[in-house]
Amino acid sequence: MYSWKSPPPKPILTPCIGVCEVDAAGLCKGCHRTLDEIAQWSSLGEAERLRLMDHVLPQRAAESTA
C-alpha cells in the first residue's frame, strides 16, 4: 500500500529584517512595507510578494534615503 504525502509548504517570502519601527510616512523602517502590507503579507500570493519585494519596496527604500 502506498502512502502519499504532500510536500512540505514553502516558507513565506518576507522582507522583514527585524527592525520593526514605523516612520512618520507609515512605513516600516526595516522593510519599507505599510502596516496594511505587513498585516496582509501571509495572505498575498507569492507573485504579489515577489512584485513588492523586487520593485515596490526597493523603490521606497531608495526614496527614503534620497
Assembly state (oligomeric): single chain
Measured on Cα atoms, how large is the radius of gyration?
Answer: 16 Å
- Proportion of residues in extended strands: under 5%
Helix content: 25-40%
Write down the overall geometry: elongated
Mean pLDDT: 90
Structural class computed from helices and strand pairing: mainly alpha
Topology order in helix (H) and strand (E) letters: HH
How many DSSP helices?
2
Distance N terminus to C terminus? 63 Å
Number of strands: 0
Largest sheet composition: none
Describe this structure in words.
The chain is mainly α and 66 residues long. It has one domain. It contains 2 helices and no strands. It has helices at 35-40, 46-65. The longest helix has 20 residues, at 46-65.
